[in-house]
Amino acid sequence: MWIDAHHHLWDLRAVHYPWLMAKGETRFFGDPAPIQRDYLIDEFRKEAQAAGFGASVHIQVGAKDGLAEARWVQSVADATPTWPMAQVVFCDLTSPDLHTQLDHFQSLSTVRGVRQIVGRAPGEDAATGTNTLLDDPRFLAGLREVGARGLSFDLQLIPELMAKTAAVLRQAPDTKVAVCHAGSPHDRSPSGLQMWAQELRNLSVLPQVTCKLSGLGMFDHHWTRHSLRPIVESCLAQFGPERVMFGSNFPVDKLYSDYADVVTAFQMLIPQDIQDAVFGKTAAQFYQI
Question: What is the value of pTM for the model shown?
């Protein structure tokens, strides 16, 4: 079974997403206007199923109330039993009531992990200050607690933060980590990709870290199979197929392509003998699907 290991859903009437309500604001990935509408399981499932997928992992996506989002995703999964769906929720690992929050999340059968974004893009990071998490001892303590509970951590960051992040992760070796969007290689020049690949080694040498081939259109809206090749090949070379998994990042990457084209491009780039791992087995093991 192929599994889309990174996608989002949202119902703008059921859950409040501040960034989806903000009109006329360009984000690091471009103009979100075309996706500032409901994106529900039926639409996603139709696209994914047509490309050969049979299950998925929902990733939190900036709701004002992370628990409200998680409960809504649980309700969607419960109402769609023929589509297995796990979820990764938002939880502030520095929160004083972290244990209580995690208890609430773990009462939901679909919850497998937590995501708290460390870095999105240099410009937005400078404005939000999210990079400061890496210097907060409560963040490290939270990472350890997540791992102790059998939960994973989805890590979104930029190449410039990889060495510093690796130093933190080495202190939480029992916490499984999934690097979102291949570590966000935002500079697609030859020198930028060389720097990204070098920095990625700080993470790939850690045995608890897995890499997602997802969201690669966010920094290259006119991507081609040729432009994606060095990223895919570097991830496979550094992590191996048993630690690489595919994610569509829909509907965000729907801004630049359709689902079938994304999957076809990756199928042409990933050797056939390891496609079952990258498109399914790695995610099934990592997210316990």
Answer: 0.97
